[in-house]
Design a protein that fits this description.
This protein is α+β, with helices and mostly antiparallel strands and 172 residues long. 22% of the residues lie in helices and 26% in strands. It contains 6 helices and 6 strands. Strands 2-1-6-5-4-3 form a 6-stranded antiparallel beta sheet, with helices on both faces.
């Protein structure tokens, strides 16, 4: 049978000529002074689906909108702004949805502005408050006329909680 002898030696920190660890700074006093090692850069948090949708909406040709839980515009496509009579996409961001120029009117002949109770039921807001998909028709007042718009909205989640909604629009 083969015989093996082992000898262990205790070294003070910095005296090792052994293999460098796979994480952290290299071992040994000389390695600390090495210009080739630097601490790892701080990591940015991973993008959420909410931020990815916002980035996508800004670049989209289709009329679409992302609002957050407080009903503030996070992203809007240029075609959405034109369709809904909103400010330019860059200036609409950060404004509450109803303060960005959106004028909703009812479907009566009088075309009265919607009440607060009725506004709470429009798809982008309803998707946030109900935490479910929402769909409906909107009548948007633009300058001299009105446009009827079909809207379908879905809640956007971050860590399992509703963070806002994504809405697509189409003229009817």
């Amino acid at each position: 049978m083969a015989h093996v002898e082992l000898e262990l030696e205790v070294l003070a920190p910095g005296e090792s000529d052994g293999v460098e660890p796979t994480t952290g700074p290299p071992a040994g006093a000389a390695a600390w002074a090495s210009p080739s090692w630097s601490p790892p850069a701080p990591q940015r948090p991973a993008p959420t689906s909410f931020t990815r949708w916002a980035e996508t909406v800004f670049a989209a040709d289709e009329p679409c909108l992302v609002i957050d839980r407080s009903m503030t515009i996070v992203a809007a496509s240029a075609s959405c702004c034109a369709l809904l009579g909103l400010a330019d996409p860059r200036t609409a961001v950060g404004l509450p949805l109803l303060d960005a120029g959106l004028r909703l009117v009812d479907f009566t002949a009088a075309r009265s502005e919607l009440t607060e109770t009725e506004v709470d039921k429009i798809p982008p807001l309803l998707a946030v408050t109900s935490e479910r998909q929402a769909r409906g028709l909107l009548r948007v007042h633009q300058g001299d006329g009105d446009a009827t718009v079909d809207a379908i909205a879905t809640p956007l989640l971050v860590d399992g909680a509703v963070a806002g909604s994504l809405t697509f629009f189409a003229t009817v």
